[in-house]
Design goal:
Chain A is α+β, with helices and mostly antiparallel strands and about 210 residues long. Helices cover about 55% and strands about 10% of the residues of chain A. In chain A, strands 2-1-3-4 form a 4-stranded mixed sheet, with helices on one face. In chain A, helix 1 links the parallel strand 1 and strand 2.
């Protein structure tokens, strides 16, 4: 039986983009079903009753929610183009950084954005960004020469953050403080697997125009 | 070379207990190094500079932080007594529920506790608990006959929540609303792998006596 894959999502969500980048890297074909966040489909509520949020991947009728859980699942089932390393210790480190991005860094950045660039909020976000800056070491990507789970998890930082900074006239990820991350952003959004999936820049800027 | 394992933690932390239960299940020997939360050791800050928190596992000089990341690592390296299932879909579901417990359920319960049982906070916590109640289905444990990642993730609910309820004279996990979870709590804390690791009940009650 051929695999049937449906991804419930929307183009503007960085969490949905994460999953689409993983699907692209693995060369997996899927149906992309666009959700209306203001009028969620009965399918979305049935498949993700806990959070009622995208992304949801449905693989042969089995629904999976949460972008990082979906990516680990894809990596478990489709072995080609691995997103997580084989080595258990490196895998644990990548999981740690992906979790750090979701639990600490993105909330701190959203706080800086929602406060319209309040000084203390920017400083707190920069404190967290510094950990990621250090983690790049001398590499092009967090995964070395190729993108991995940490790169994909940082999609928001690579593209959405810049849109918010432009919309609000603020700067969190400054080139002088974060030279490696600045270069990483440019490298990452120009990857073949990433650039075709990102939404138009003006839509991201408009999202933060509040 | 024999494996050298050190776990930095403290007895009263449910997140440290998670890791100790996983180590017990796998029959792994380790040195337990007790941290003073008010005077953190230089080792802890070196090994976990991002969060400066326990638990930290150091395996042959490689530090790993975050309880769920540590447990996945242990399960990757020590194959005996698996904590995650082999099947990719069941594994994704277990990861989803573990994440739900950390991201949604424990924060909602802490909110109910910190508010000293404010009605709306209790209702919100119960709404989240209901998802876990349903997930037990007719099983003794979330893992079926044996405990798995979801059971271990819910250690706070099995033991700490009851301590907080007693200290504050409130009730969130009521027997009438959550008959399956109530039974699960009793089954879980009586497991061989769990009961020897849990701190004394009176210490947990004292923790919430504020």
């Amino acid at each position: 039986m051929a695999d049937e894959l449906k991804l419930y999502g929307l183009g503007i969500s960085p969490f949905v983009c994460r999953v689409r980048i993983a699907l692209y890297l693995k060369g997996i074909k899927y149906h992309f079903i666009i959700e209306d966040v203001r009028n969620k489909s009965a399918d979305l509520i049935k498949y993700n009753p806990v959070h009622k949020k995208v992304p949801v991947l449905v693989h042969n009728r089995n629904p999976i929610s949460e972008s990082l859980v979906i990516i680990e699942y894809l990596d478990d089932v489709w072995k080609e183009a691995p997103i997580l390393p084989q080595d258990a210790y490196r895998k644990a480190q990548d999981r740690f950084w992906a979790k750090f991005i979701d639990d600490k860094l993105i909330p701190a950045l959203l706080n800086a954005i929602m406060s319209h660039g309040q000084e203390q909020a920017i400083e707190e976000a920069q404190e967290q960004l510094q950990f990621l800056e250090n983690e790049l070491k001398g590499n092009k990507f967090f995964g070395g020469d190729n993108i991995n789970l940490v790169d994909i998890s940082a999609t928001f930082i690579a593209f959405w953050l810049g849109g918010a900074e432009e919309a609000l006239g603020i700067k969190v990820l400054t080139k002088d403080k974060f030279p490696k991350l600045t270069e990483w952003c440019a490298n990452y959004i120009n990857c073949q697997a990433v650039k075709g999936i990102l939404p138009p820049r003006e839509k991201v800027v408009a999202l933060f125009n509040f």
